Amino acid sequence: MSLSRLSSPQTFSRVFIVARGAATGHAVAPSSDNSIGYFEKIAYRFKGIPLPTETEAPKSMFDACNKEWSAPELLPSVPKDFKEHPDRDLTNYPYPSRPMYPPKTRLLMMPDSWFTAFQKVTGTSGPYLFFGGLFAFLVNKELWVFEEQGHMTVGWILFYLLVSRTAGYKIDAGLYKDYQERVGFFKGLIQEDLKEAVDFRKTSAAQTASFAALKEGMPTSLKDSMQLQLEAAYRKNVQTISNEIKRRIEYLKETEETKARFERDQLLKLINDSVEKQVSQKDFQEKFLQNAIQQLKGIAV
Amino acid sequence: MSGAAKRVATSSVNWSKLAERLVPEHAAELTRVKGVSGTFQSAVSQLPADLPKIDFAALKKALPAHSAVLDSLQKQYESVKIPYGEVPAEYLKEVDQWVDYNNARIKLHEVKVADGLQEAKKVEEKWAKAPPVEHFDRQHFVEYFPAHFYDLRYQNRIPDPCNIGLNETPEIENRFKDYKVLRRADKVDDH
Question: Which domain covers residue B121, as residue numbers?
Answer without folding.
Answer: 89-129
